[in-house]
Specification:
The chain has one helix spanning 10-17; strands at 19-24, 31-45, 53-63, 75-79, 86-95, 101-111. It is globular and about 50 Å long. The N and C termini lie far apart (41 Å). It has one helix and six strands. A hairpin with a 5-residue loop joins strand 5 and strand 6. It is mainly beta. The protein has a six-stranded antiparallel barrel.
């Protein structure tokens, strides 16, 4: 680790704010891990059009050490809140800009029933 890197490591963030998540990449075995929800943003869709709708974008951070890659259409089963109902989420896009974490835009699917 770079001695001039003053960022907080992922481990304490995941321990404090994480929710259990099961990540299943296409044609791969599920990975049990922890994800951290990032405050959702609101987008006007489509932008610049006089008729728009407001749409939430669900953002989650996942530790790169736990998940080797996160291609589009990867499925993630996770609750929105700790101990809440579990939903199936689909990875729509990934931000690879951070060396410690993936930040993914998720599309919300159906509630998972066991």
């Amino acid at each position: 680790m770079d001695p001039m890197d003053f960022r907080v490591p992922m481990a304490p963030i995941l321990a404090a704010f994480g929710v259990p998540a099961t990540v299943t990449m296409p044609d791969a075995a599920p990975i049990e891990t922890v994800g951290v929800w990032i405050l959702p943003t609101m987008n006007d869709v489509p932008q610049g059009d006089p008729f728009t709708r407001r749409e939430s974008r669900y953002l989650m951070a996942l530790d790169r050490d736990a998940v080797p890659e996160l291609p589009r259409f990867t499925l993630i089963e996770a609750p929105e809140r700790l101990n809440g109902p579990v939903f199936e989420w689909t990875v729509d896009a990934t931000d690879d800009g951070d060396p410690d974490q993936y930040r993914v835009i998720l599309l919300k699917g159906a509630e998972v029933t066991s």
